[in-house]
Design brief:
This protein has a six-stranded mixed beta sheet. By secondary structure, the chain is α+β, with helices and mostly antiparallel strands. The longest helix has 23 residues. A hairpin with a 3-residue loop joins strand 3 and strand 4. Helix 4 packs antiparallel against helix 6. The protein has one domain: Heat Shock Protein 90 (2-Layer Sandwich), CATH 3.30.565. The chain contains six helices and six strands; from the N terminus they run H-E-E-H-H-E-E-H-E-E-H-H. It starts with a helix and ends with a helix. It comes from Candidatus Xianfuyuplasma coldseepsis. Its EC number is 2.7.13.3. Keywords: ATP-binding, Kinase, Nucleotide-binding, Phosphoprotein, Transferase, Two-component regulatory system. It holds the Pfam family HATPase_c.
Length: about 180
C-alpha cells in the first residue's frame, strides 16, 4: 500500500468485522520530535492472547475466504521501514488499539494520502459506526466526530451524498488549515 490512509482503511475494516461501534483515529505529526504517529482504537470484541500474538503474521487470518491476512503485517512493515515501531494491544470484549509510529521525515514514510476518502468510504458503508478523527500537527489540531454530526443532522443519514461531500471537504480543509497555521 503506497498511502498510509489505505492502511488505516484496512485496520478500520478489521474493527468493523469485530463489531466495533466506535473507531477512534488519531494522527499526530510532531516535526520537532520527528515523529508521525497513527493510532486506531476500537471498542470491538477484541482478541485473545493467542490471536494477538499471531495477528502480525502474514499467513494468519481469521477470514474463511482466504488463508492470508496481509493488512496488519504490511502496516507493521511500513512503520518499521520508516524508522518506526508498531504495536497492537487488545482485550477480549473491550477492544483493540493499533499504534504505528514513523520517523516524520524518513524517506520511506509513505504519504498519508486521501484520508477524507478513507473516512467517506467507511461512513458510506457502515452507517452504524461512529468515527472520531483527530489530526494533530505540532500545536494545532483538527477534530471530526460523527456523533456530533449525527446530532446536528437530526435523522439525515451520514451516507447522504451531500453529507459525505461536506465531511470530505471539512476534513481536507481542516487538515490544510492546521498545516498552514503551523507553518506560520
Amino acid at each position: 500500500m503506497n498511502e498510509l490512509s489505505l492502511h488505516i482503511l484496512d485496520i478500520c475494516q478489521n474493527s468493523i468485522k469485530a463489531n466495533a461501534s466506535l473507531i477512534q483515529i488519531i494522527i499526530t505529526e510532531d516535526t520537532i520530535k520527528n515523529t508521525y504517529i497513527i493510532e486506531i482504537h476500537d471498542n470491538g470484541f477484541g482478541m485473545n492472547e493467542k490471536t494477538l500474538s499471531e495477528v502480525a503474521d502474514p499467513f494468519f487470518t481469521t477470514r474463511t475466504t482466504r488463508s492470508v491476512g496481509m493488512g496488519v503485517s504490511l502496516f507493521k512493515m511500513a512503520a518499521e521501514m520508516a524508522g518506526g515501531t508498531f504495536n497492537i494491544t487488545s482485550k477480549v470484549n473491550q477492544g483493540t488499539s493499533v499504534i504505528a509510529q514513523f520517523e516524520h521525515n524518513h524517506i520511506d514514510r509513505a504519504p498519508l494520502g486521501s484520508i477524507e476518502d478513507t473516512l467517506a468510504i467507511l461512513l458510506m458503508n457502515e452507517a452504524a459506526i461512529d468515527i472520531y478523527y483527530k489530526h494533530i500537527c505540532n500545536h494545532k489540531e483538527y477534530v471530526l466526530d460523527t456523533r456530533e454530526i449525527k446530532n446536528v443532522l437530526n435523522g439525515i443519514p451520514l451516507a447522504d451524498y451531500d453529507v459525505i461531500m461536506w465531511v470530505k471537504n471539512n476534513i481536507k480543509e481542516g487538515i490544510t488549515t492546521i498545516h498552514k497555521e503551523e507553518a506560520r
